[in-house]
Amino acid sequence: MTRFSAKLFQEIIKSKNKNGNVVFSPFAVHAMLALIYRASEGETLSEVQRVGEFNQHPVFSWPWTSSD
């Protein structure tokens, strides 16, 4: 999540006034992406996985955690 947070911060400050203050929660953004990732499939899943830098952990593949 650290690399994700740094990239996100860089994108935010590019789009904001360089003289102003910026407050954001990288954890909240990453948590929301995790929810979207879990509910996604196909191309959307791949894109969210790439953007959020999610690596599939074996525990998330267990049958009792599957949404099927």
From TrEMBL:
Ranges where the Serpin domain occurs: 2-56
GO MF annotation: an example: serine-type endopeptidase inhibitor activity
A Pfam family assignment: Serpin
This protein's UniProt keywords: Protease inhibitor, Serine protease inhibitor
Protein name: Serpin domain-containing protein
Organism, scientific name: Drosophila gunungcola (fruit fly)
